[in-house]
Amino acid sequence: MSSLPTRFETWFAERGWSIHPHQSQMLDRASAASLLLIAPTGGGKTLAGFLPTLVELADGDHEGLHTLYVSPLKALAADIRRNLSTPIEEMSLPIRVEDRTGDTPSSRKRRQRADPPHILLTTPESLALMTSYEDAARTFRGLKRIVVDEIHALADSKRGDQLFLALARLQRLCPDLRRVGLSATVEDPQAIARLLARHPDPCEILHADPGPDPDIRMLETEENPPWSGGGGAYAIPAVLEQIRQHKITLIFHNTRAQAEIFFHNLWLANEDALPIGIHHGSLDRQQRERVEKAMVQGKLRAVVCTGSLDLGIDWGDVDLVIQVGAPKNVKRLVQRIGRANHRYNAPSKALLVPANRFEVVECVAALEAVKAHDLDGDPRGPGPRDVLCQHILATACAGPFAADDLFAEVKTAGAYVSLTRAQFDACMDFCATGGYALRAYDRWQRLMQNAEGLWHLRDPRASQLIRMNLGTIHDSDKLKVRMRYGGGRPLGEVEEHFASQLNAGDTFLIGGRIVRYEGLKEMTVEVTRAAVRKPKIAVFSGTKFATSTQLSHRILRMFQQDSWPALPRHTAEWLALQREVSSLPQPGRLLIESFPHDGRQHLCLYGFAGRNAQQTLGLILTKRMEEMGLDPLGFVSTDYATLIWGLEAVRDPAPLLDRSALLDGLDRWLAGNAVMKRTFRVAAHIAGLIQRNAPQARKTGRQATFSSDILYDTLMKYDPDHLLLDITREEAMRGLVDFGRIEEMLDRVGDRIDWTPLERVSPLAAPLFLEVGKVPVEGAAQERLVAEEAERLMSEAGLA
Amino acid sequence: MRGFEFSLAGVELVARGSGALWWPGLRILVVSDLHLGKSERVLRLGGAPLPPYEAQDTLARLEQDIEACDPALVICLGDSFDDDLAAQGLPEPIETWLTRLQAGRRWTWIEGNHDPGPVGLGGTHLFELPQPPLTFRHIAQPGAAGEVSGHYHPKARLSARGRSVSRRCFLLDCDRLILPAYGTYTGGLRSEDAALTGLMRPEALAILTGPVPRPIPMPR
């Protein structure tokens, strides 16, 4: 049935393997212009992607590059190179395989451009860089196939947008290039297919057998989960017991800080001294590599980790995945569960550990969604223009180009199909002049047109700076953490913002140990060992995902049941009490409670719109309350509710939620908001308005924040229609501001607002008082408090 | 904008919420430490490029104060420019703006430690300006009386029901007044700093800037 050459058939047979159906299907359709394979983890996906290449290269006739392999992880590229070497050596195939990432020495990178291997394994960033060189056409001559691995992870991010723009460029250099995408299980394969294929080419989708359903349950613990917080510390004895019963356990956390705290507590309770490691993105690379190696060698029994282990690599014989904290998103949960048991056709085993009472509800809802194969995911908007600006500058690095040609090329990338010429021209103008308000400044004048109308760099030397700043990954700026005495390797990294708040003597957790902050020395945080059991602070990274819309709706539906047999008793009783004292939030309605507490007036809105949108709602509502003289003092938000407190009681909350008033408030509030400034900073870096990397020295994060904040204020004041502000608004609406989900909530709720004034705090609102991340409002109430305190101080001093 | 009224050496003065000082009797407006041209200087010295427009922001606020008070004399109490080069290298629109603000009134630049030389802009240039019973100079001198100065960029902090609020402030005792920095990019020195506690009497007040300026006992 398949066109598998004898040499390959023999090789398969010798190893006692038979080719998977989807692998031979991939081979049959090897000539398709684009092809997407959807397969579960462990389904031989990568081999399916490479088989056609190995077969085509087997006769040794091809010269130069044949296949590009792009993956989101550097480590994956190295891993694949090792895996490919086995069949190539055993079948003596005349194929040269190399990888090229940010870690590759520059001498080898230069050689690879002049004399590329048959198969080059790389990342989106390295590919963008390679296409920006003048000799790109020579490097990629002969290229036949491009394989994009873990395309589902790239499709959700700007890294993907950058990759697909680079693909459009490659396709121009190599017109008969064939595209192959390899994806984990996703809710909308068509959406990924549209990104992969050259528009308007079709893209065939192959589905591998999804394998058996996972064995997934909630972890039973002796102690009840706490009312709030995200640590999951109460479950440590039960987690240790599970580690004992399994070969290798992966323990996923939603944030790095939580992973650190959990790891620390795990070790305090680890009486059998089971070998347990920690792995997350803030740890030093060498430390991470050590843990990875130990895992592959089977020396570890468990690893506490974050999204850093979400993708790709086969980390040995993992037979249990534990997710601590609500999964927030069913699709990611399913992909994480897939990490357990890489044997095809065996169910993966997973346990969920809700970190607090509300998360118990969310976990049960997520379990139901997994059973129902109900994956979530929000469609992504059109291709972001900051990435396009970067692409334009990178294109200029490769040589003069005509705007018409580039526009036509960009429109073949799925995400940019709806890009208008006016939008494109605005991006061109930004790259050429910096935009109206900045046109007087030399450093933002980068492109000019020659006599033939082709665009080129005004100063060719600028290409170095542009290349240095290619890429769309935007980690907050990090500082290395080192032991003050004895030197040695760095322990890891903390965000500069976090470091700037530390005082000498403060203790915090990193790499599983408690250290004392001593001082900052040349961009390094110096610490010493601290012999305390409890660190003072541990929050050094705050990536918080919002609970998906689908999951939120599921929770609302669950609230409507008469009783909750699927929930543990403590949680069911809590919900029943809420129903008795107030009511439970309902789908299609908005519950608002108001009550006095601790000398202040409180308003609690159960919007179920996700953390970011609830946060935005808090910001806009307090702004409106400020204008109405209600003197709000602050608010706190979770995925399901926003709690606002202030000096005056709200008499009627409905007018607060008027859609046009909210939108109007949003516009004005957006102007000076820190979330907007953060979004602007990212867009400004990607679009090349601010350079993160310079040939001289690295600009520190605080300096970068400082100047990007002031640039933002400047543009807001003098050029409010500047392209970058436009991009910032668009990004914020669907990202950190997430106004889209506020609108979703308003649509869902209409005028059905259930306002419930209460005498005191309701059961559902109580945990909100324990939440961290309270946001103060600096307005009239603050002035009132300052006046109050000033008067008190003056009369105490006998001055008034 | 409301002000806080007080007297120094028998003179009735108003501390404005913006950080400017108003002497209604002689129609004198005083501002200190504008630090115009800071972003250019930082760039010149090879630091991180600060974005432009900081001078615009400072002047826009100064213009509001001038419009509100219509002073006969404006005194800039030193460190008006980040250094002499910055004073000479001001962009043309900024120079024009300054000239416009100066029209119809007298203008005095007091020397600061950042900008000792005379400037090529309109107005008189002095080391200090005696205007009995007050003396205007950049850096406070121990033992002086009736002295109005700047230089230290004072700020003060208070805790309002558990919320910590830090504001630029005036420092006032019966001998002297120290003005907060007026410039957009200027940092601050906490009133607890020994340089300030050593200078001010124990009963000194800190007048916090803000929508309504408010006096508190100087935190020390």
Automatic annotation (TrEMBL), chain A:
Keywords per UniProt: ATP-binding, DNA damage, DNA repair, DNA-binding, Helicase, Hydrolase, Isomerase, Nucleotide-binding
GO molecular function list: ATP binding; ATP hydrolysis activity; DNA binding; helicase activity
Entries under InterPro entries matching the protein: ATP-dep_Helicase, DEAD/DEAH_box_helicase_dom, DEXH_lig_assoc, Helicase_ATP-bd, Helicase_C-like, Lhr-like, Lhr-like_DEAD/DEAH_assoc, Lhr_WH_dom
Region spans: Disordered: 95-118
GO biological process terms, semicolon-separated: DNA repair
Domain Helicase C-terminal: 235-388
Keyword Signal tagged: no
Residue ranges occupied by any Helicase ATP-binding domain in the UniProt entry: 26-204
Stated family: Belongs to the Lhr helicase family. Lhr-Core subfamily.
NCBIfam families with a match to the protein in the record: DEXH_lig_assoc
Protein name: Helicase
Annotated source species: Pseudooceanicola atlanticus
UniProtKB/TrEMBL annotation, chain B:
Name listed for the protein in its UniProt record: Metallophosphoesterase
InterPro entries in the cross-refs: Calcineurin-like_PHP, Metallo-depent_PP-like, PdeM-like, Pesterase_MJ0037-like
Coiled coil: none
SUPFAM superfamilies per record: Metallo-dependent phosphatases (SSF56300)
The organism of origin for this protein: Pseudooceanicola atlanticus
Signal sequence residues: none
Domain Calcineurin-like phosphoesterase: 26-124
Record-linked Pfam families: Metallophos
GO function terms (MF aspect): hydrolase activity
Taxonomy, superkingdom: Bacteria
